[in-house]
Amino acid sequence: MSPRWTPNPDVRRGRSVVYNLHAHLVFTTKYRRGALTDPILTRCEQIMRDVCVDFGADLREFNGEDDHVHLLVHYPPTVALSKLVNSLKGVSARYLRQEHAAHLRRYLWDNHLWSPSYFAGSCGGAPLAVVKEYIENQKRPT
């Protein structure tokens, strides 16, 4: 008898596609100002999870420090990564500026939370466990 085959939960199926796409994203605050507190990071994660759901993506891991955040996103091939990034940054900036205006105004100006640039890395080369462990070990401010 052959060994029982177990499906990989990361491999997803669409109508005409089978995929396993993960991206490691890093967003920095404008001017690398240390504006992100633990409550802001917690709220940022909630917002970004909701944005991912709207795109049919899954935020697998989130962490950060006072001046940047790391995300591990599992996304479908129908999503342009740049559009997902623009939405993640835009929606989170809008909500965080509304909800934490007094705090963020001390660190940032011109209503900009995120730097216009970002890092996006494909996770195909490194095992996902290594990337996930790296993100888990990013230090949140105390």
Blueprint of the fold:
Elements: E1 12-13, E2 18-19, E3 22-29, H1 38-54, E4 58-65, E5 68-74, H2 81-99, H3 101-107, E6 114-122, H4 128-136
Antiparallel strand pairs: 1-2, 3-5, 3-6, 4-5
Helix pairs in contact: 1-2
Q: What's the gist of this structure?
A:
The chain is an alpha+beta fold and about 140 residues long. It is about 35% helix and about 25% strand.
Question: How many distinct domains?
Answer: 1
Tally of strands:
6
Helix content: 25-40%
Give the count of helical stretches. Answer: 4
Could you tell me the CATH topology label: Alpha-Beta Plaits
Taking all Cα atoms into account, the compactness measure Rg is 17 Å
Structural class: alpha+beta
The level-1 CATH class: Alpha Beta
Parts with pLDDT < 50 across at least 5 consecutive residues:
none
Strand order of the largest sheet: 4-5-3-6
CATH architecture label name: 2-Layer Sandwich
Shape descriptor: elongated
